[in-house]
Amino acid sequence: xxxxxxxxxxxxxxxxxxxxxxxxxxxxxxxxxxxxxxxxxxxxxxxxxxxxxxxxxxxxxxxxxxxxxxxxxxxxxxxxxxxxxxxxxxxxxxxxxxxxxxxxxxxxxxxxxxxxxxxxxxxxxxxxxxxxxxxxxxxxxxxxxxxxxxxxxxxxxxxxxxxxxxxxxxxxxxxxxxxxxxxxxxxxxxxxxxxxxxxxxxxxxxxxxxxxxxxxxxxxxxxxxxxxxxxxxxxxxxxxxxxxxxxxxxxxxxxxxxxxxxxxxxxxxxxxxxxxxxxxxxxxxxxxxxxxxxxxxxxxxxxxxxxxxxxxxxxxxxxxxxxxxxxxxxxxxxxxxxxxxxx
Length: 343
Prior knowledge:
By secondary structure, the protein is of the alpha+beta class. Helices cover about 40% and strands about 20% of the residues.
C-alpha cells in the first residue's frame, strides 16, 4: 500500500491524504491532449510507456540530443513494460486483451513539423509482444516507429531555448485511479496547474474523452463521466476540480455549452485558508462581526468561488461608508456582502 502524505486545511480542519509521490512524469501537451478512446488498462499502458521514456524526455527538457541514446539504435524503438506497473496479477488476462485491442486502435496526435506547419498523426501506437502466461515478473515488449517516439518525447521550446507546452504529473496517481476518465482529466488539469484553470467547450471535452455520440443527454454524461472522475480526484489527488461549483457549467439558456475548470491543489487551499482568516479577522476587528455573522457569509469562502481581491475591495469600500449614523455596523456589512456575492 502506498504511503500517504497529510495536508491539513486550516479553515475546514480537514486532513487530505495523498499518496507519497515518488515519481513525476513530464510529457508534451500534444500527448496530454491526444484524442483516444482507451480503456482504463489502456490508459495505464500508455502512461507506463511515457514513464519508461522519461530518460530521453528529460534530455529533451534540458535541450540535449536524446536520439544518441541506444534506444534509437535501430529502425524501431522498443520498451520493456512490467505488467505489475499496469495491474495486479489477477487482472493480467484483461490487461493483455486490452493491449491486443490497443495495438490496432487509432490515437490522434496533433503536432507541428519542422517548418511549423500543423499536422495530425493518426494510427495504431505500437506492436506488442507479451508472455502467454503473466506473473509478477511478466514483461510486455512494445515496439513503435521512431516518429511516434519522437512525438512522445520531443518538447517544444521558446525563443530562449526553454522547454514549454508540457505537463508534469504524478505517476502513482495516474496509475492508481479507477476510471479512465479520471486518468485523462487528471493529466489535463495537471497541465493547467500554473494558470489555475481553463475553459473547455462541451464538444471539445466530449471529443477529448472519446465520448462523442455516446451521451445524448448531458445529465447522463455528468452522472457517468464527470461525477465519478470528480469524486475520485476531489481531495484525493495532488490537483482536482469541482464540478459542483456554481460556475463550473457554462450555459446558453438551459443548455450546458462548456465548462470552467478551476484547478485546486492542497497548497491552493492552504493559501486560501490564510486569506479567509485575514478577512474574518478584519470583519471582527473593525465591524464587530460575530461568529453568527461570519456563518451567514460562509459560502463566499468556498475555494470554488473565493475571490480575495474582490472581497477585500468591497470591505474597504464599505469601511468608507460606515459612519456614526449606522448603529449596527456588523449587520450592515454582512448584508452588503451577501447582496454583493451571494445573490
